[in-house]
Amino acid sequence: MDAAPVRIAIVSPQRVVVAGLRSILEDCDHPSEIVPLDSDGPDPDVVLYDVLGLLDGDGTDLEIVLGKTASAVLAVSRELRPDLVAQALKRGVDGFFPLGAAEPEICEAILSTQTGWQDGDTGENPVVGSSGSAAYAEQVGSSQGLTSREREILALIAQGYSNIEIAGEIHLGINTIKTHIRGAYRKINANNRSEAVAWAIRHGLPSQFR
């Protein structure tokens, strides 16, 4: 029996992005169907949300998607604006993939929303809540020597938390937080907060600690 197509809605302020993603999805091994995001119709299985919408608008469209559908929502991140995917993750999207990701990785990310992320799957950004998420989080930064606390703090930084907010979130003193941040920056060769955010998002950290 043929697999049922994954029903996918694409939300982007740029028609070229919609067309590009549609073209990629047509070449995925698993069948898919592009559907409109219609409040009067059935929810799609997956919504692909271009984070550029948070720059061009106030994010109301993302709030509607998250609040009024039961769909899995994947943010489509932009390399030069890691802060936007951090905002999307903080608002509650299920995961993300870079717009410039290889076609098989995009197909795999979308399919994983339906099948669950399994240990050993490839790619840097497993869907939140899937079976491999915790294991993946423990691996991120291991080659750089990051501690679990440093990983957690980097994830919170990438989600837009200030140092004071991080201290309140994980119940540590502000000076201890700063010590962990300095250690993490040194290990990942980040010179400032923006570089740390970019590193964390490239490695899928924000979606692992929420």
From TrEMBL:
InterPro entries associated with the record: CheY-like_superfamily (IPR011006), Sig_transdc_resp-reg_C-effctor (IPR016032), Sig_transdc_resp-reg_receiver (IPR001789), Tscrpt_reg_LuxR_C (IPR000792)
Per the UniProt record, one Pfam family is GerE
What PROSITE patterns does the annotation carry? HTH_LUXR_2, RESPONSE_REGULATORY
MF GO annotations? DNA binding
- Listed GO biological process terms: phosphorelay signal transduction system; regulation of DNA-templated transcription
Keyword Transcription attached? yes
Q: Which Gene3D superfamilies match?
A: 3.40.50.2300
Q: Which UniProt keywords apply?
A: DNA-binding, Transcription, Transcription regulation
Check the record and name the PANTHER family matching this protein. Answer: DNA-BINDING TRANSCRIPTIONAL ACTIVATOR DEVR_DOSR, HTH LUXR-TYPE DOMAIN-CONTAINING PROTEIN
Protein name, per record: DNA-binding response regulator, NarL/FixJ family, contains REC and HTH domains
Q: Which organism is it from?
A: Nocardioides lianchengensis
User: What does the record give as the organism's lineage?
Assistant: Bacteria, Bacillati, Actinomycetota, Actinomycetes, Propionibacteriales
